[in-house]
Specification:
about 110 residues, alpha+beta, 3 strands
């Protein structure tokens, strides 16, 4: 389910050896929650403007995340891009067939 929720903080954190992308609107509260749940390598940054998860992940990737954090961001970004493409609607149509009678009639009317 795609949402348009906006976040002002994004980054990564490792819990039980697994690094994941994290999003929030209050950095201090989010760091406290992550610490309490046993996360390590917490690396959160303030975003330049409120962003969706997809936009935030693109921004994080531009910042050059390295190692496990870079892999976690790239992996989550690929997932979000795939989700976004699912929501797109492709419209295909065929050109209408025009008979000789129709073209003659249009020419006569002009």
């Amino acid at each position: 389910m795609a949402t348009n929720k906006l976040f002002t903080v994004a980054g990564t954190a490792t819990q039980n050896g697994v690094t994941k992308a994290r999003f929030a609107n209050d950095m201090v509260a989010r760091i406290k929650i992550l610490n309490k749940s046993g996360c390590t390598n917490i690396n959160l940054i303030e975003l330049p403007k409120p962003m969706t998860k997809l936009e935030a992940l693109q921004y994080l990737q531009e910042q050059g995340q390295a190692g496990d954090a870079g892999y976690a961001v790239a992996s989550k970004l690929a997932e979000k891009v795939k989700e976004a493409k699912k929501g797109e609607v492709k419209v295909a149509g065929k050109a209408p067939k025009v008979t000789a009678k129709q073209t003659d009639r249009v020419a006569d009317e002009a």
